[in-house]
Amino acid sequence: MPKYIIERIIPASGALTSRSLQKIARISNDAVQQAGAGIQWVESFVTADKWYCIYIAIDENIIREHAAIGGFPVNAIHEVMAYVDPVSAEGDIKHP
Question: Is 89's pLDDT higher than 90?
Answer without folding.
Answer: no
